[in-house]
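sry for the spam today, last one i promise. struct tokens for design, 230 residues
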């Protein structure tokens, strides 16, 4: 399994505890906890608030939030997931009610901005692109299928096997999103309100203020570093 790091932040629901629970039940956490390295028989586990009309969780925690599980490497926001999985349900694999809903106009606009950015990157020699879970599970970017289509239109291919740990600089970039403000955060490549989109050459998701290999094809120069790098 891989653990959704964006939601494993509470004392009662965190990566060390989930890793231990998995080991007790014969389930290992994938290398580097990278959901892109999951196989078709593996699962991605995350926690999220319950929403009216949304998909049913596999479990409900004492604080009222739900535990959602997807099977395989296809990442998507919970409300658009087609590969939800729960071994205790009679229908173990199911899709979210909104999985096939058209993408909102705001999402299409964001994907358009991302596509133009990736086209600029291709013109500067970038050939491969991967999407970190902070982008692939963000409802503002649709889902993994929409991101993959955006990359194809920009002329970029996924890394070998779809695994982001196989992206290599200088021709491969990873797209990820982070929220951050203040003097110790570098400017994002695409600002989107509270969360900015960043690109990094290779597959390492840096601590932004110490990042060595940030990249933005629309900046001059395109390669830059965090304020505390080095």
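last one done:
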């Amino acid at each position: 399994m891989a653990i959704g790091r964006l939601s494993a932040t509470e004392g009662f629901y965190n990566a060390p505890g989930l890793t231990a629970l998995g080991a007790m039940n014969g389930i290992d956490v994938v290398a580097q906890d990278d959901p892109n390295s999951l196989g078709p028989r593996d699962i991605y586990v995350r926690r999220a608030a319950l929403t009216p009309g949304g998909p049913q969780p596999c479990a409900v925690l004492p604080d009222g939030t739900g535990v959602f599980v997807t099977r395989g490497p296809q990442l998507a926001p919970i409300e658009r997931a087609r590969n939800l999985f729960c071994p205790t349900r009679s229908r173990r694999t199911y899709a979210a009610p909104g999985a096939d809903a058209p993408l909102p106009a705001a999402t299409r606009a964001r994907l358009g901005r991302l596509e133009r950015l990736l086209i600029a990157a291709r013109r500067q020699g970038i050939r491969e692109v991967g999407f970190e879970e902070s982008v692939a599970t963000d409802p503002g970017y649709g889902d993994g299928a929409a991101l993959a289509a955006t990359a194809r239109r920009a002329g970029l291919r996924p890394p070998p096997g779809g695994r982001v740990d196989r992206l290599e600089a200088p021709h491969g970039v990873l797209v990820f999103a982070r929220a951050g403000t203040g003097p110790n955060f570098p400017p994002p490549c695409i600002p989107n309100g509270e969360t900015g989109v960043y690109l990094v050459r290779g597959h390492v998701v840096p601590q932004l203020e110490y990042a060595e290999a940030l990249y933005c094809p629309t900046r001059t120069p395109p390669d830059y570093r965090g304020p505390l790098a080095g």
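The first strand starts at residue 2 and ends at 3. ok im logging off now
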